[in-house]
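Progress against Task 2.4 (sequence-to-structure conversion) is shown through the following example record, which the project officer requested during the mid-term review.
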Amino acid sequence: MLNNLILDIGNVICDWNPDALVGGAFDSPVEQEEALRVTVGHADWLALDQGLLSMEEGIARAQTRTALNPDGIASIYQNLGSSLLALPATMDAMQRASSAGVPIYILSNMPKHAWDYLAANHDCWDACAGIVVSCEAGCIKPDAAIYRHLCERFSLTPESCVFVDDMEKNTTAAIAFGMQAEQLTDKHAGGDLLDRLVSRILAERH
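Structure tokens generated for the chain above:
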């Protein structure tokens, strides 16, 4: 029976816009493209998500990959958390789901410094029954290990879970693991999607 709502953070709960993040550090399109390549687009970004690098190590390594202003490169990492702006419709729907008795869990790829910021600056996490972020789990989506980690940590069965993520590869991996999943292609429509899924969960209970 479907019972648990599993949510990604980026472009589901918070707006993730790497172009805007990099645009805040560099003015010219050429510099922005280069900055994206050596930061968000580099394999080290996934290592940050996985908890294998600290923010300081990530900055230092990125600065060696480019001749761009090192302060601008550093700011991309330092401003990541504050750049993840709340998506109010989803956050409001999380509170409605919690009030209706639907357990919410977080499953997100996120570096530690960004998660620390979000944990301290948004109150939507109070609606959650459990949280798994990749930097603490040591694995990242779409690796099956992180879906398994979530289920084992909170004693969930895959078939009881429906997972919402903005990336098709992550929802596909969730389905392969045994969950139901929905890809959120419009980050501003998260509230409607959550309300619909909560209605499904409540209907299955009866």
